[in-house]
Amino acid sequence: MSEQRPRGGMVILLSFVAALLLAVIPLPGWGVLVRPEWVALVAIYWVLALPERIGVGWAWSAGLMLDVIQGTLLGQNALGMVVVAYIMMRLHRRMRMFPLPQQSLIVFVAIGLYQMVALWVRSVTGAVAPDLSFLLPAISSAVIWPWLFLILRDLRRRFRIN
Prior knowledge:
One of its GO terms (cellular component) is plasma membrane. The protein is mainly α. Helix content is 73%, strand content 0%.
């Protein structure tokens, strides 16, 4: 028996690049407040779909790229992404069995934790703590999750990514 070589690395990388672009595309003032956490959502999907291949290292790299692109404190997003990736790696078998609405609730909690880590890092560095509106991206991410899941699953099946 021969082992199958992993396929689709370029598609995975391009999905992260697209998420990074969506994370920095200019939006009006209200749009910035509710912008979904695209990079974290893409990381969640790939960790759930391919936990043996996409994990904490990919999430850390994507978070570091997001830090560089957004000009935030280096490691702020990377730390949050690592926390989310680790949680999803621990839950991936259970999460796959849940229907999409229930997955959305777990995504809401995971993105909320991501936002809490970012808030903690900002407060440690002396930035002003915002009100609860910092959780709005968690809500919009949970709302978008079913569609993003279906799109990325279709891509994974179409390109036979393993």
